Amino acid sequence: MNELRQKLVETALAWERAFGNAPSITSALSEFDAAALVGCTAEEYSASMQGKTSVQKGFDFEFKGSRYQVKGNRPSGKPGSFVTLVPKAKNYDWDFLVWVLYNTQYEIQEAWLWEVSAYIAAFYSIKRLSPSHYRQGKRLA
To answer: What is the pTM of this model?
Structure first.
């Protein structure tokens, strides 16, 4: 399944070279990669996602009885393109949040884990989150 991930990345990068912008694959990749970072095998992740939709409310995947919300960012690589704004969770129907930061080649540069109560305590009243906010969590990569 990691070979399938690589083919998706290669196709997205080829599309970006041809048309100037990459297809929106960051969400799908970050969910797959986050699952691996917390110890879920590709086979377990695949089995858990069968019958699910990409707009499932509250969390992105379950593993060992915990619900995971995933956020991911990738800079476009255009001049001045670096990540300054990170997505904030819109609900708290999850147990852990994983934030994954990629480089322009969809290679993981860093990943951070937050438990829901710590996340709420740290970010509930903050409107705009930056990478430095998420870097206060537990580093996964």
So the answer is: 0.94
